[in-house]
Each structure stands twice: as structure tokens, then as C-alpha cells.
């Protein structure tokens, strides 16, 4: 089989030739001058490869030979003629030929190859395997060049001109683009070699092991040093974040959530103190009313156990009586409680009439005491969920914009964080420059910005109904971030605590008699007994006072493990 002969060369005036896409970005001025001198002396010995300009229908576009073309223009002027090979080619064929021609000659720099790789990958619809095949590269080489494509232009030029080494560029590729130029200035001004540059970057990175936020997103982040280790020979140690702005933003968000939770707890504690003061003066009157209401299992048990408590207190003062005596006293007290109670005069009670009905305690009345805590806790839970899910955050922003509620986000909420979200210089830019800065945001950083906006909406939107609807649609589970604790229980009276214990299953777990004994103690002891009941786990139990539909939320099928039991691998993630 006879191989096809190459197309014959012809000559064309330089004025009819235009520069097509050229992967080459940097042309050495010394070598350019040498080539101009050679062309003037010997003429152009190797033809330029061109193709017809299909868009304009006139002239030709260079496929290979851009450096010779530039030198010929200087040597012969636009009217000078040069040898060319004309070949019909599609845009994609021309792109691949141009890349291959420069790559085979080994003259193209790493950044030129990076820019070419971006174009080929786009033409392959982000199929890296196909892009590597078309370029004739290994997948590893393609991944490395694509990582270098994120370098800012000054760093690319510095590498093209060999003012920095490839190792410098690989280290800088792990730094956000808005910080690379400043780092480059430091490297050039101080004459830092690759080793010292790595040491400098290590000092300004953040140790992920000490992060106080959820690090699951960091696993696939390009600014995680582990990702750089997989790409480049030159990298910093594993387990470090090279995006200080993102790290600081997530840290501040986590601290803000912690502060708000502590603030809610302190507010609940203040409310509980007022409630406790009220209970101190009202417990005796409540006991008398319980006795007047007739036979009641829990009331009878309260009276019996209250007698037990009195004897226990007495025994501590006058010496411990025998076990037989304690039993007799308890039985006597219980019998007295069962006898018909004579009417009590108002002067004897000093407070309420004997026929005054006891105030009813319902789930609604309990929930009304916790409205502020409930709404603040759900807003925080929704904000955390949106901050961790850019898709849900984007949907929230769109709904807020279309419903006209997006302006409810406080101006200072995002303006004050713009420097962390976008870049340190962003607040000082004019509006047009801010548009450009937003358009240049890498995908992960743009997703972080959207998440922050969605989280801000959850915190600031005026109507809690909007928070409720979003939480339901996105299946936000409050049990992931909150559970019954001392501060919550201190917000309620003893009767309200009895209702909470009943709906959450504590009374069924320890029995009516045992809980009645708890109820006869001081409120602080009652709460301690509720929280530390043997064999009872509060995790995963959501009282109706804290749910969105005022219905008790039982624990999930798989109980939530206490923090101390979370596997080490989960904590590390």
C-alpha cells in the first residue's frame, strides 16, 4: 500500500495569512531575533501549515508555524511571500494538530500545554479519558496540566520565562488565584528556592486536624494538600488547607453557630431561674391541691414518696432509724394520703380556695414556653444544612428572589464577609470590578458563596413559616444538631417536666412509682434524675415542644451514637 504523499507547498503573501489558535504563549525574544536574521539570510526553509479561513471565507489561518510567521513579518513585511502547505481542516483537527506540533517539538511550556488541555477537554465535553487520548498524554499528565491551568497570568508568564521553576508553579497552584500574585512577588523579591517556598507555604496553611467545622467537603477540595500530593512531585505535607479565606469563613460560621447555641442555653437558663423561684413558693400549694382532687395514682405516690423524703431528712439529723421503722413510716404516710381529706379553710392554705381547678398542662402550653429557643434552633439547623449543600442553597436563593423575600437578608451579613467569601480586596473594588471578580470565581468557591447566602437567608428571613417549609422540603433533622439537655429542661415547671418525660418515654422506662419519687425532689435533682436515668438514652428523642408540627419525634431506627462513640474515621472526616 502506497502512503499518501503530503500536499505540495505553494507560496502566499503574509498579508493573506492570519494567526489561528496557537498553544504557544511565550516567545523568547533572543531566539526570535536569531530566527529573523536566519530568514533574511536563507529565506524560509520549512513551509507553514495553514488552512482556509472558513468563517470569513478569505485568507488562511495558521495551524503550525506561528513563530516563523512572526519572524517573517519582521524580516519581509506584509507583502513578502512565504512557502505554505494548505490543508482543509476542522477547528478541532486544527487545534489537535497545533498542540501536537508544539508538544512533539518539546518547545511548549507547561502553562501552554495547560491552556491547550483546557480547550481540548471542553471540546471533549469534560471527558478526561477522551481528552488524554486525543492529546496522546497519560491521564496523570493531563490532570497535572489542568491543575496548572488555575495559575494566575503573572505566575504563568514567570514560568514561561523561567523566572521560577516548575516546582514553584506546582506549589502556587495549590493557593487561591487571588493570593498567587502576592506570593510570586515574595518568591522573586527574596529569591526563594523551591524548598524555602514550600516551608513558607506550610507556615501560612491551616492544619485540618484542628478545624472545628465539618471537614467532609474538604476531602475533594483542590485546596486540600492531599489533592496536590496526588498531582505534583512538589507539594506540602498532607492534612493542610491552603485556602485560608475558606478555612476562616468555615471556622467563623462554626463559631457563630456555637455562640448562638450558648446564647440560647443562657437565655433558657435565665428563664429557668425565674421558673425555679416560682416553684419554690408554689410547691406546697400544688401538693395541697393534688390532695383535694381525689384519688390519683401519681398524686398518691407523690405524697407517699414525699413522706419518705421527710423521714430521710430527719434521719440525717437525729440518727438513721432501722429499715423496719422507715417502712412503717412510709406506709403510715401513704395511708394518711388515702383517707378522705377534710375541707381546708382559705385561711389555712393562705393561697387558693379548695375548689380552684389545677391549671392544665398541654403540649401547646409547653411549646409556647419554648418558642424563642425552638425557632432559633431550627434556623441554625437549616443554616448549617444549606451551608453544607450548595444545590439546596441555590434553590433557596431562587425561591427567596422569586418570592421577594431575598432582600430580608441583612446587608451587613454578607457585606461584612465579602472579603472572606470572594477575596480580601473585593470590598474595595468598584461595581464593574466586583462583577469581574465574581465571574472569575472557581467552581468550589462559587458554591461556598451560594451556601453562605442560603445560610444567611435561613437566619434572617422574617417569617419562621419560610424556615419551616424549607426545613421540611430539604428534610432537615433537628436531631443531628440538638438534643434534650439541662438548659432545656430548666425552662419548665415540674408538671411540664412530667409531660415531657411521659411523651419521650422516660416514665414508661423507669415506671410511675420511680418517676413520682423523682418528682417529689427538688427541681434540680429531678432534672438530674431525668437526664441520667439508668438505661435511658435521650439522643434522638425530640419533644413536641421542639418539633415543627408539635408532635413528638421518636428516635430513628438506628439511635444516634453519642459523640464519644463516633468512630475515629468519622471524626477525622
Short description:
By secondary structure, the chain is mainly α. It has 29 helices and 7 strands. The longest helix has 49 residues, at 244-292.
Task: Provide keyphrases for this structure.
573 residues, mainly alpha, Conserved hypothetical protein from pyrococcus furiosus pfu- 392566-001, ParB domain, two-stranded antiparallel ribbon, 29 helices, elongated, disordered N terminus, ParB/RepB/Spo0J, Chromosome partitioning protein ParB, chromosome partition
Number of strands: 7
Poorly predicted runs are: 1-5, 284-359, 558-573
**How confident overall, as mean pLDDT?**
74
Beta content: under 5%
Q: How many DSSP helices?
A: 29
Radius of gyration: 38 Å
Arrangement of strands in the largest sheet: 1-5-3-4-2
Assign the structural class, choosing from mainly alpha, mainly beta, alpha/beta, alpha+beta, or little secondary structure. mainly alpha
Distance N to C terminus: 61 Å
Helix content: 55-70%
- Cα shape: elongated
**Largest sheet features:** 5 strands, mixed
GO biological process, one term: chromosome segregation
Keywords: Chromosome partition
Pfam families: HTH_ParB, ParB_N
GO cellular component, one term: chromosome
Amino acid at each position: 500500500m502506497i502512503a499518501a504523499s503530503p500536499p505540495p507547498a505553494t507560496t502566499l503573501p503574509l498579508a493573506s495569512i492570519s494567526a489561528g489558535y496557537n498553544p504557544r504563549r511565550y516567545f523568547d525574544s533572543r531566539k526570535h531575533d536569531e530566527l529573523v536574521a536566519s530568514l533574511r539570510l536563507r529565506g524560509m526553509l520549512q513551509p507553514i501549515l495553514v488552512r482556509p479561513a472558513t468563517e470569513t471565507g478569505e485568507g488562511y489561518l495558521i495551524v503550525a508555524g506561528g513563530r516563523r510567521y512572526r519572524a517573517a513579518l519582521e524580516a519581509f513585511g506584509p507583502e513578502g511571500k512565504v512557502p505554505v502547505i494548505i490543508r482543509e481542516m476542522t477547528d478541532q483537527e486544527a487545534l489537535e494538530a497545533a498542540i501536537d506540533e508544539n508538544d512533539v517539538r518539546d518547545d511548549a511550556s507547561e502553562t501552554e500545554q495547560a491552556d491547550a488541555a483546557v480547550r481540548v477537554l471542553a471540546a471533549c465535553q469534560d471527558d478526561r479519558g477522551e481528552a488524554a487520548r486525543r492529546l496522546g498524554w497519560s491521564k496523570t499528565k493531563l490532570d497535572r496540566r489542568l491543575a496548572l491551568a488555575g495559575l494566575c497570568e503573572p505566575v504563568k508568564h514567570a514560568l514561561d520565562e523561567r523566572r521560577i521553576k516548575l516546582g514553584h508553579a506546582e506549589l502556587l497552584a495549590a493557593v487561591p488565584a487571588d493570593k498567587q500574585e502576592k506570593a510570586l512577588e515574595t518568591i522573586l523579591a527574596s529569591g526563594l528556592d523551591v524548598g524555602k517556598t514550600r516551608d513558607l507555604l506550610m507556615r501560612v496553611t491551616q492544619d485540618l486536624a484542628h478545624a472545628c467545622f465539618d471537614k467532609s467537603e474538604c476531602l475533594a477540595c483542590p485546596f486540600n494538600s492531599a489533592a496536590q500530593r496526588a498531582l505534583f512531585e512538589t507539594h506540602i505535607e498532607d492534612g493542610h488547607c491552603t485556602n485560608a479565606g475558606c478555612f476562616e469563613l468555615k471556622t467563623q460560621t462554626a463559631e457563630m453557630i456555637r455562640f448562638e447555641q450558648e446564647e440560647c442555653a443562657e437565655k433558657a437558663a435565665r428563664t429557668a431561674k425565674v421558673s425555679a423561684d416560682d416553684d419554690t413558693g408554689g410547691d406546697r400549694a400544688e401538693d395541697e391541691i393534688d390532695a383535694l382532687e381525689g384519688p390519683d395514682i401519681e398524686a398518691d405516690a407523690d405524697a407517699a414518696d414525699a413522706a419518705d423524703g421527710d423521714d430521710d431528712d430527719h434521719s440525717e439529723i437525729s440518727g438513721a432509724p432501722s429499715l423496719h421503722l422507715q417502712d412503717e413510716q412510709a406506709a403510715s404516710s401513704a395511708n394518711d394520703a388515702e383517707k378522705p381529706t377534710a375541707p381546708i379553710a382559705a385561711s389555712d392554705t393562705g393561697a387558693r380556695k379548695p375548689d380552684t381547678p389545677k391549671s392544665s398542662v398541654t403540649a401547646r402550653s409547653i411549646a409556647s414556653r419554648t418558642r424563642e429557643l425552638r425557632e432559633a434552633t431550627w434556623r441554625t439547623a437549616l443554616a448549617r444544612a444549606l451551608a453544607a449543600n450548595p444545590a439546596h442553597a441555590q434553590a433557596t436563593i431562587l425561591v427567596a428572589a422569586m418570592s421577594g423575600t431575598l432582600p430580608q437578608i441583612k446587608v451587613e451579613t454578607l457585606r461584612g464577609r465579602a472579603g472572606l467569601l470572594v477575596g480580601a480586596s473585593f470590598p474595595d473594588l468598584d461595581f464593574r470590578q466586583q462583577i469581574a471578580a465574581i465571574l472569575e470565581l472557581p467552581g468550589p468557591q462559587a458554591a461556598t458563596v451560594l451556601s453562605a447566602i442560603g445560610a444567611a437567608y435561613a437566619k434572617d428571613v422574617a417569617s419562621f413559616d419560610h424556615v419551616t417549609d424549607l426545613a421540611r422540603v430539604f428534610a432537615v433533622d433537628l436531631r443531628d444538631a440538638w438534643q434534650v439537655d439541662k438548659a432545656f429542661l430548666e425552662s419548665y415547671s415540674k408538671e411540664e417536666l412530667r409531660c415531657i418525660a411521659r411523651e419521650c418515654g422516660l416514665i414508661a422506662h423507669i415506671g410511675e412509682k420511680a418517676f413520682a419519687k423523682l418528682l417529689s425532689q427538688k427541681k434540680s435533682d429531678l432534672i438530674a434524675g431525668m437526664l441520667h436515668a439508668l438505661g435511658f438514652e435521650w439522643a434522638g428523642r425530640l419533644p413536641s415542644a421542639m418539633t415543627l408540627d408539635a408532635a413528638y419525634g421518636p428516635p430513628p431506627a438506628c439511635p444516634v451514637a453519642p459523640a464519644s462513640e463516633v468512630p475515629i474515621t468519622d471524626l477525622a472526616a
